[in-house]
Amino acid sequence: MRRAGCCAALVAVLGLLPSTAGFYLPGVAPRKYVQGEQLMVKANTLTSNLTPLQFDYYNIPFCEPKNGERALPENLGEVLAGERTETSAYQFHTNVSRLCKTACRRSWTPRQVDEYRDFAAAHFRANMRLDNLPGAELVVYRDQTGHEFVSYRLGYSLAEPSDKNASNFYVNNHLRFTIRYHDVQTKGTRMEKIEEPGALIVGFEVKAMSIDHQFEGKWNDACVKKNTCELFTCDPNTGPEPTAPKLVLKSHQKMDVVFTYDVLWVHSAVKWASRWDVYLQMQWQDDEIHWFSIVNSSVILLFLSGMVAMIMLRILRKDLYRYNQLDQSEEAREEAREETGWKLVYGDVFRPPKHASLLAVFIGSGIQVLGMSCCTISFAVLGFLSPSNRGSLLLVMILFFVFMGLPAGYVSAIFCKMFKGAGTDRLKNTVLTATLFPGVVFLIFFALNLMIWGDQGTGAVPFGTLVALLLFWFALSLPLVFLGSFLGFRRDTIEPPVRTNAIPRQIPEQIWYMRSVPSVLMGGVLPFGVVFVELFFILSSIWQHRFYYLFGFMLLVLVILLVTCAEITIVMCYFQLCSEDYHWWWRAYFTSGASSFYLFGYASYYLLTRVHVAKTMKVASYFIFFGYMAILSYGFFVLTGFVGFISCFFFVRTIYASIKVD
To answer: Under DSSP, is residue 87 helix (H, G, I), strand (E, B) or coil?
Structure first.
């Protein structure tokens, strides 16, 4: 009970770590706005829960700024995430509320009307940002007991269905922006000479509605600039008419659409440091499941780990004691040696495996991915990767992966040197370590990029960004791998604790469940069982456009995963050696690495049950989903495989160094 209580307390502390960060990094510091100051409203991509494809905001003929839309600068992480930021036609001024302001009047061709209908049918939502806060729509949920919960959905819907079958739509051409601000007044206080007064934006809400605007006479575009457009359906003093008809989307016909908007400034008691709380609590309905599952799996797994460790230590200590007993007769010692099989293969257990050079490459790639994951999650737990700092997560991952090329080359070279005489080549090993894992990832990424290019999605990475990625790879990562390899080959060779026989020992027939494939598949179940709950939230954040913020939980799950991979691989390796099968090298890597196959299978199940792909984008969506999940599974394979292998390697060295061989 005491151990369970400690574990629960540890989970709670780790889960609260992100929320206790009390500092902000450069680029996300508070920005105060003075009365009447013009604000820049940024237009982002069009996103949908029914497809991973994202599209440019101006793929739909929305209103454009008077000087035309202009792309705003983005960092590498934003570009890789498929986010595009552009200027918009909506004009805001600090603390100035306006009703029924006309943005523009657009004439849509029949083709543009049909394209808009396709976007509406696929449930696309338009995203906007103000002061780095994403625009969100206020929604009310009811739980099973009837209690109401207020939450938010990112962006606003392009259209609302006009019937139950959602075959016809109303165009959402009127937006109501509610800007919540926290007023900072320093006059008459000690902060008057230090801090300037102003308004801090702490909330940005968007509500979309459909209005079939009516006006008298012929339309004149000049009224938009002069703000003199008179509409019967929208009064600048009282707002939209409640009885105004909705604008029906007429398929295959030309349409004239008048876009209008309201701007409401509302004072809020929310502090600037807490303004992201509403976005991070958007998935309130999953919080209880998250906490319950993580705590229970952590407690159960820790008890299981203790039991496995205790059993293994007791059995091994007993075996070693009987094997190394000096005061018993030679006949008794021989009988003890024949009683358990793992000691019979001491002369073959360190025989280099087939494709030893490739194994050394995968070992190096594994420590590179593991180091990248640990450093990235640690930075996120400390609060350095706030959701307000867009694109920072991907950017930091790439940087850490590049710098981890040094230990990758070092470890790969050590094992390559240890496998001397097994067909290993130093230059080949170094080049493969630097290119095999990132090369496969880049090829998949490039193929998906070509497909997204063909569909004109914003997820397509520009050619200049691809060049930048290649520079990261060949100008930074590759030299670091070569440097690490140089240092690794200069190190003394790791010598096995027992001598390897010249003639390989014959391996007896194995029971079916101890053969390679069944053994590996059984070993991969437990590591996957540790992460599958957290995997649900990660997949939701990627494909359902949610914010992931519980990095404390992720760190805890990572630690449990590493311990589980080590333990299950050691246990399976011990059983393998007891059955006198000494081909443990590759199997140790695949035992925990097999969890990646279950991960890919669970991702497929998630796609079929949680992501209802739009019919018009089915093929591209499936390719993109499975392509990126293949990259994720590949990275998970080398990470878990390395942890299992390196644990098994030290375990085998330890037990065979403890026996006395004549």
So the answer is: strand
